[in-house]
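Supplementary notes for students who missed Thursday's class. We covered one full example, reproduced here. Read the sequence, then the structure, then the short commentary at the end.
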Amino acid sequence: MPPVEIREDILDVEQQRPRGRRLDAPSALGVSGELDRAVVTALDEGVIVLDGDGVAISANPSACRILRLPASAIVGRRPPYLGDQQVFFADGRRVNARTSPALTALREGVARQGVLMRFVDEDGERWVSANCRPLRRGGDEKPYGLVYSLSDVTDRKRSERRLREERDRAQRYLDLAGTVILVLDPAGHVQVLNHAGHELLGYDEGDLVGRDWFAACAPAEEMDERRAYFERFIAGDVPPSDSTPEADVVTRGGELRTLSWNHTILHDEHGRVSGTLSSAIDITERREAERQVSYLAYHDGLTGLANRALLEEHLTKALARSRRSGCAVGLIYVDLDGFKLVNDSLGHASGDEVLREASERLAMTTRASDLLARQGGDEFLLLLGDLDRDRDPEEVAVKASARILEALAEPFHVAGAEFQLGASIGVALYPRDAHDAEGLLKAADGAMYRAKRAGRGNYAFPEPDGGDARARLSMTTRLRRALARDELELHFQPVFKVETGELVAAEALLRWNDPNEGLIPPGVFVPVAEETGLIDALGDWVLERLCRHAAEWSERGLLPARLSFNLSPRQLRSGGVAERISECVAAHGLQASSFCVEVTESTAMAEHARVEPQLRHLHEAGFTLAIDDFGAGHSSLARLRDLPVDMLKVDRSFLAATPHDPQASAIVGAVLALANGLGMTTVAEGVETEAQHRFLRDAGCPLAQGFHLGRPVPFAAMTELLEARTGA
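Structure (token representation):
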């Protein structure tokens, strides 16, 4: 038999689609009997998983067999796992706790591959090859664990010594020795598959010889791709950089096993390609161990929820999105009230059951976009990301907190006992309460303790003048700068006739386009402006800019029938606001009848002596007056009848449940009837579905606005809508 030349190359059978060619079979005979015997004796790989402290948390049977130690001598202990043996490196140095390759790799954070160790005991010596792979989370320098894999290479070492004395060609085969040895001809048919390969795949010895390897052992969905790459490889079209691929094989029983392959091309004595030689190690258990460690690094082992590490990653990403989009971010900190008593009375097993049930109840209250995590003990965190900038983020967080309290209020039944827990909840909002992830977590934690001090079983926000004082002071300063630098802008949400779909009005909405954080919703900065007295300056800016836009539309014949804007409680209480509004409108040559002044229900009903004169002055000047968010506050029908109000805007919370909720639908119908009886017009806010739109049309609601009909848009985009309406 002429010698076979070997050129080292890499065969990646995972990435291509095959088309077969045939070759003479003699290449199979070129594989020496000595090589077959050496490979047949290869052993399965041992896998030990260490935690960040170097303590073993699992060891598979092969690891125990290779080390000749029981699992109890490995799990819960640190390497080097010597037992009664003496262990040396290949250079003669002794292996101990200080020199252990696993602990060294974990300490230095650098992988170590192919570390040879010689084990000596009364039965003689054995050789073991070790691979140490530290595991990290993204961005961390320190590993949180390590996969320590072991292979008994005693027979290989002995064969190497023997084969080195015979011929170089056998040595090159041996360099590829692993758990599985496979020789294919150029058509992809099996010429040689060793005992380990047959055993792994579940076939009797020789059953696969002569069969198409890809048809027999490749996953069906990858078969064509693998075969095509095989053809490219033997044609020399695969770069050496595509090395040692991982690929799945299908056993006779249909099980998928993951193998790490090393491939080379075989040539005959004339230099022609005679086939491929491949060695492979089964790494299925190693990959599963890595997945287990990775999962545990980001999830709570008891409840299966995300842990704090995963929540912090998502929180950081949510804050980055918020700075770009202007949406708010909420963080809810939940602490179970009375859990310690349950744990102490019923035991830790029952306590764990309570935590699992509590986590399931909490999960039922969340939105698809929320992330629920277990902080530890009886504490949970709920991340409310991407809160719509057209809704009050505090309102969203309050509703989420109320759902949590309601879910936990139901009795628990554990170990034959019935009891109630409840919860104390802290709520923090970005950017109102903090400007980074750490600050938001601290703010939510502080708010939770504030809720506990208030009597438990409720929710609380950070202290108005406490831990968030610096954040509010910073926002006040930035808001003053925004006014000076013209960082504010108006967006307009169109209002339509429900019956015809005609655009007849628009509501002006204030936006803050911060150069660092992007669009900040009014629900975040308006409360700060109200508290610090900046609301008057903001209100004047809104009125001036609205009149400027209205004058431009009027000159072009685009002005809609009515432009709405909001007055805050502080503006109404300060006095003189009616005069300022009238003067600004007149100064731009506009008519008061073109504007609608909106005040919230609670503002209109409170402080009668101070508020009503301002409203009457505006009404007498010709402005339309509207009660915003009607139904969300506490109205006195007698007061409502006496106020000079022309319009009721139905609170969006009622419309959200229509038409499927009979009670919500009845409330909306009652508001429509009330407005009609009092001679007022009704506007439905928050129309987000076609079903809601149809319900309003059937109920006889005259006007509506909402995302389904038209989202808030900047001045230029609103101008285009008005031009389209008029055909300009």
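Commentary. Residues 307-467 form a domain with the Alpha-Beta Plaits fold (CATH 3.30.70.270). Residues 111 and 133 are 5 Å apart (CA to CA). If anything here is unclear, bring it to office hours.
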